[in-house]
Amino acid sequence: MSQYNFIAKPTIDGAPAEQGIVRGDIRVPGDKSISHRSIMFGALAEGTSHVSGFLEGQDALATLNAFRTMGVAIEGPQDGKVTIHGVGMHGLTAPSAALDMGNSGTSIRLLSGLLAGQGFDVEMIGDESLSKRPMKRVTDPLALMNVDVDTAEGGTPPLKIKASTAALKAIHYDLPMASAQVKSCVLLAGLYADGKTSITEPAPTRDHTERMLEAFGYAVEVDGPTRAVVGGGKLQAADIDIPSDISSAAFFMVAASLVKGSDITLRHVGINPTRIGIINILRDMGANITLLNESKIGGEPVADIRVQGGELKGIKINEKDVPLAIDEFPVLFIAAAAASGETVLTGAEELRVKESDRIQVMADGLIALGVDAHPTADGIVIQGLGGTDKRIAGGEVESHHDHRISMSFAVASLIAEAPILIKGVDNVATSFPNFLTLANDVGFNLEMIDA
Length: 451
Hints:
4-stranded mixed β-sheet, 12 helices, 451 residues
């Protein structure tokens, strides 16, 4: 595979005071979490589903290609539009080879639940990064449902799921950690179980699975922190309009928050209550964020988000916001580096088992750029630079081929004194294929070069 780096240069327009100003009115790609689920549920539905706003990134395409391999006719994607000819809950066919999930943890964990109830053996593999990620968090509850699944030594991919000979066993499962992927895996396996399968989560996590099951006509019981489904039902085809991904919008939200004079409007962004930690945390830090044109599309709340630059202050991040912003913390660490005072994050040990150990990798990169950052077991302590008149140093950082690390340090270049070389940016395309173009359109100065 070809490998690439970013050269991220400070943007200086005439005078140092103009450094880092970004302006624009843009729409970022469709929500990755919803894109995955639209393919999964459309494939298992009865009838033809139409999807618009689909994210044409490598992660979501891994899910799409897996269902094509299992006999589902799918047209597109073309300009974000996909047509899925559903085969019903039991209409998938055995793949002739292992399903390659690439870099997508969402694909492999959610499909583990859906494939547990099929009548064929299936193996799922991934790239080097995915092959290091923990899977016991999904294989343990699946084993309680009488699913026979093997992993590599240490509980990592590849996953080998054996054909089910009978309906799975319905269970109640108390999630040991706040994880939408584990919650979804258990609920989706529950669609094939005999009886009611329920989970109780320790803190709210994104609820796209529950919302989309309802959109496809499958009832989900909600009782406080507990979610439940009764096995044996059907999915009915639906039309899904996918909003823009708030996790992708987050890079531009932070970018616009860093420097006075910045002003960005992000269109048609999903503001699901289980995803708005980025908004809550930035507002706590003093960011000027306005929600405009709020509406609901296909069961998902959306809005235009306007962010105007100002001065940020360090905070103790509310642990209630941690699961609501778990994917956005790398770029929030850049906001903390620019802020006045200390920012403290706790309760975020989940960050250590993402595409990389995002706590350690971000800390290493920030330290390389002259920022005082101290990683802890479940978070980080960052001493901010103290306002818009101070800059981080230039230098080299390692992304460890983690797309969110790469894009976060691109944002850091807006407040840098010198260029930043960001190594290993290949996986940016997994979630944000046109990041480079959009970033340069609004005022970044990014260049992709061969490694």
